[in-house]
Every structure is written in C-alpha cells, then in structure tokens.
Amino acid sequence: MSNQDQQPPWGKKNKPQTPEEVVAQLINKLQSFFADNKKTSPNGGTPETPSGPSSPFASIGKFLAIAIVIIVLQGVYSAFYKITPSEVGVILTLGEYSKTTPPGLHFKVPYLDKLYKVDVENIRKEEFGFRSRFPGQQATYDRRGYDTESLMLTADKNVINVAWIVQYRVADPYTYLFKVANVRQAIRDMSESVTRRIVGNMDFDYVLSNRDLLAASVKIELQEQLDRLFPTGMSGVSIGTVQFQDINPPDPVKPAFNEVNEADQDMKRLVNEAQETYNRVIPKAAGQAKKIVEQAYGYKAQRINNAEGETHRFLDILKEYKKAPAVTRQRMYLETMKTILPQVESVYVIDKDQQSPIPLMNITSVAGLANQPK
Fold first, then answer.
1. Fold of the CATH domain 124-249
2. What is the tens place of the pLDDT at every residue in 138-171?
3. CA 279 distance to own-chain centroid
C-alpha cells in the first residue's frame, strides 16, 4: 500500500464534494442497502455466499422499506392535482364533503382527501324517440325500436309520434355527484313523464302547430320537477333547451293524414284568396259609397243655399218693386240684358222704319265675281 492509504482517517483532509459525487454516494448506499448479502473474497475473486443462513427479518425489512418508499412517492405524486378551465374539483376528506376547487393547480392531503372532477361547461344531451348514429353536421338518425318513447296520446284521443332532445349541464357539482344515484336516468324518466302529460292535455292539431310553445312548457316544468325532488330545491343540473325534432302521426295513418292536411291547406288557400278579394274590393266599394254620399250631401247643401239666396233676392226685389215699380222694372230689364247680350254671337239691330227687315244678297255682284278670268 502507499503511504496515502496507510494514513489514519483523522489525518486525512475533507475535500468539498460536487453534487454529482453526492448523488453517486446516495445511489451506492441504496444499492448496498437493497443488495443481497453477498461477500467478496479477499483476493478480489468471485463473490462468495455466506456460510450462515440469512435472517428472515432482513428480507421483511427490505420489503417494508420498498413499500414505504413507493407509498411516499405515490403520496407526493397524488398530492398535487390540476383542474382544467371547464371543470371543478370536489374534495372529500375521510368520506365527507370538504370543498370545491376552481380551475388551476391545487394540493390535497394524500390518502385522506379524495378528488372528483366534474365538467360544468360541457352540454350534455338526452335523445327521445331516436338515436344519433353519426353525430356531426351530416348526422344520421335511427328511429327504429324507439316507439315506446315517442308514441303519445293527445287530448282528442289521437296517437302522435314525438321525438325531442333535452340539453342540460351541471349546475351544482356536489348535488350532481352525491344526491342522485343516476342523474341521467332521472332526467330521462322525468322528461318523458312531463312531455306525455303536457301532450296529453293538448289536441292533435295544436301539438302539430305549436311545437315551440310545447318545448317551452316542457323545459319549465321539467326543471321544476327535478328541483322538487330535493329538499334544498336544487337538482344539480340546469336544463338548457328542449327541442322537438319531429312531430308526426304514426306511419300507418300517415297517408290519410296527408290527405286531410292537403284538404286543410286547400281550404286555407281558398279562405286566404277570398279574404284577399274582400280586402281589395270591400274597402274600394266603401270608399266609393262614402264619396257618393259626401257628394250628395254637398249637392244638397248647395241647392239649399242657392234656393235660400234666390229667395232673399226675390224678396228684396219685391220690396223695391213695391216702392217704385217702373224704376224697378227698367233696372231689372237692363240687368237682364247685361247678362244675356254678352252670350249672343250675332246681334241684329232692326229699324222700325226699314221696308224689308230681311237682308238680300246682291246677285249681280256675286255673278260678276264668278265670271272673272282665273
């Protein structure tokens, strides 16, 4: 051996160790701790198995150490959890509700706290009377075998085939998880019960033509019935929309229904045409009648006013005539001539001393004009 190897331990100087050396030493210690009890020969040969039997407590201790390490690592790994933006976390401590955690990174006590992740943003959907085979923009549906869900009886004793969708989301994660054993089945049973009751109180034609009103009624009553199941008044879910996909009579009576529907459409068309004619003709006739009546009233007022005016004029003239008959007659004559003469085209003044009142044409002058050379 060299002098360095023979130097006692208290004579050696401790040099600072690097992080790599510390990790290597830790690995070597773990390997030596969990390794089998094997000894190496002094001359550096192959390892020799010890002559004495190994203690059973050593194997149990190694197993317990390994188990403890695994449990500790698993606890550290499970202590931190992440909640996505669309989820919330419900924590139970020893089986009892502890808290609800929002999205983000959180810590829980290992082996004491249990985590339930609930998606509160996703819209869940339940289909009645059909099933979507390939969802999407070009979705295909299958309605075979779902008549027990869709066939309903109306108030006027007719059978109708109804297919609808109920969309909902989680409103209270704790109630959704622990207050109802099967929320999905509860929604299906309650929705079918409410829809059958509302459709059963309506006539066949009313259901066909008022699906929006029917959907609104089902949505309101379905939410009320679900909340009524719980003492707190909250079912844990919020009904978003109720949409009726298809409302038709059953297949065996569809031809007869189509004929009745066509006849009803023809009747409505004729009624609309008659109403259009009525709206076009009646107001026009009423306007003309009103115009004629107004003209008659105007003519009546005019004649009455003219008659009253002529009467007053005649009475005034009579009063003046009684005072001066000759002067009044002369004035009346002149006023009459003044009114008549402007309307006369030719005026002939006849002299009482003239021999022939009829003017004669000069035949000689006319003949002379005719013989002039052209």
1. Tetrahydropterin Synthase; Chain A (3.30.479)
2. 667 787 888 888 999 999 888 999 999 999 999 8
3. 35
Distance between CA atoms of residues 330 and 204, nearest Å: 95
Question: C-alpha angle 193/195/201, rounded to 5°?
Answer: 105
Collect contacts of 141-149 with beta carbons under 8 A, ≥24 apart.
149/192
Is residue 108 a contact partner of residue 115, using CB atoms and an 8 Å limit? yes
Low-confidence ranges of the chain (pLDDT < 50): 1-14, 36-53, 366-369, 373-374
Domain ranges of the chain: 59-117, 124-249
pLDDT at residue 308 in the model: 93
Q: Which two tokens stand for residue 30?
A: 């773990």
83/104 Cα distance (integer angstroms): 5
- For residue 240, what pLDDT is reported? 92
Give the helix ranges, DSSP H, for 55-105. 56-79
The phi and psi torsions of 284 (rounded to 5 degrees) equal: -65, -45
Backbone angles phi, psi at 108, to 5 degrees: -135, 155
Residue 42: the pLDDT is 47
Q: Are 146 and 129 in contact (CB under 8 A)?
A: yes
The helix, strand and coil proportions of the chain, stated in percent and rounded to the nearest 5, come to: 50, 20, 30
Query: Which residues, listed in sequence order, are joined to residue 83 by a DSSP beta bridge?
Result: 104
Query: CA 371, CA 58: separation in Å to the nearest integer?
Result: 175
Tell me how far apart the alpha carbons of residues 323 and 11 are, in angstroms, rounded to a whole number.
175
The model's pTM: 0.54
User: CA of 240: how far to CAs of 168, 218, 226, 347, in Å?
Assistant: 5, 12, 13, 102
pLDDT digits (tens, 9 = 90+) for 233-282: 677 899 999 999 888 888 888 888 888 888 988 999 999 999 999 999 99
Residue with tokens 């009576």: 253
